[in-house]
């Protein structure tokens, strides 16, 4: 597992993906990816990933009602809502604000909303995780983020925004794929796939040790566990799941 072998195998993978690299060079791939390919891919991945992680998500979101505010409302902000695959796990009557940096999820998001009418949808904001200025400080009881921190530009900056918008005692829920153990074959393949994967899948990074960012953030309490999600032939099996309290 030498650096040289990683570089050689990266080059081989890049050759296989040469048409996409060429489209990227011509400035065609990124707009096509954001508007057509990635929304389609994410909806399909969401279906597969959702089946594989259904039990984990049920357990993860089970205590969401515990963070209902003194007014009796549960105000929830989801960063990177995408296709709305988490809606089914949110408690009835929950007031949801959806955000995503990509505005091209509208069709699949509308389908998810119509299937989950037990929720109250407040608004949809086109916003990155690092810049939620449209959301007032201390205005939400819970923030949810799944399969998103892999592609934000700044994980620590996103967590700072999470802490800002949460009220004191509010909670941040996460389920993210992360880097494998550095001595493992999974990490070796993550290193090989990294550049091409990031290009093809709209900035998704395979080797982020997101648990370290969470440990360094200013949360008063952190419940986190590592798990492996059965996604054979993909480099995104290692995951972390849990929640953190402001």
From TrEMBL:
<dbReference type="InterPro" id="IPR013216">
    <property type="entry name" value="Methyltransf_11"/>
</dbReference>
<feature type="domain" description="Methyltransferase type 11">
    <location>
        <begin position="77"/>
        <end position="174"/>
    </location>
</feature>
<keyword id="KW-1133">Transmembrane helix</keyword>
<dbReference type="InterPro" id="IPR052356">
    <property type="entry name" value="Thiol_S-MT"/>
</dbReference>
<feature type="transmembrane region" description="Helical">
    <location>
        <begin position="7"/>
        <end position="29"/>
    </location>
</feature>
<dbReference type="Pfam" id="PF08241">
    <property type="entry name" value="Methyltransf_11"/>
</dbReference>
<keyword id="KW-0812">Transmembrane</keyword>
<keyword id="KW-0472">Membrane</keyword>
<dbReference type="GO" id="GO:0008757">
    <property type="term" value="F:S-adenosylmethionine-dependent methyltransferase activity"/>
</dbReference>
<dbReference type="InterPro" id="IPR029063">
    <property type="entry name" value="SAM-dependent_MTases_sf"/>
</dbReference>
<protein>
    <submittedName>
        <fullName>MET7A protein</fullName>
    </submittedName>
</protein>
């Amino acid at each position: 597992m030498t650096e040289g072998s990683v570089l050689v195998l990266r080059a081989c993978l890049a050759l296989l993906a040469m048409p996409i690299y060429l489209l990227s060079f011509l400035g065609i791939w990124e707009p096509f990816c954001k508007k057509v390919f990635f929304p389609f891919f994410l909806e399909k991945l969401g279906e597969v990933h959702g089946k594989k992680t259904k039990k984990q998500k049920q357990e993860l979101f089970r205590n969401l009602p515990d963070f209902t505010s003194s007014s009796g409302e549960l105000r929830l902000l989801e960063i990177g809502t995408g296709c709305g695959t988490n809606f089914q796990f949110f408690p009835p009557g929950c007031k949801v604000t959806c955000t995503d940096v990509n505005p091209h999820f509208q069709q699949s998001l509308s389908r998810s909303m119509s299937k989950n009418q037990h929720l109250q949808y407040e608004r949809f904001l086109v916003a990155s995780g690092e810049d939620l200025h449209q959301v007032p400080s201390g205005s939400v009881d819970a923030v949810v983020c799944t399969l998103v921190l892999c592609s934000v530009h700044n994980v620590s900056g996103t967590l700072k925004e999470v802490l800002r918008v949460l009220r004191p005692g509010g909670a941040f829920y996460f389920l993210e794929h992360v880097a494998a153990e550095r001595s493992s074959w999974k990490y070796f393949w993550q290193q090989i796939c990294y550049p091409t994967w990031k290009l093809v899948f709209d900035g998704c990074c395979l080797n982020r040790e997101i648990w370290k960012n969470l440990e360094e953030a200013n949360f008063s309490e952190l419940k986190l566990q590592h798990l492996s999600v059965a996604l054979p032939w993909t480099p995104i099996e290692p995951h972390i799941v849990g929640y953190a309290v402001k």
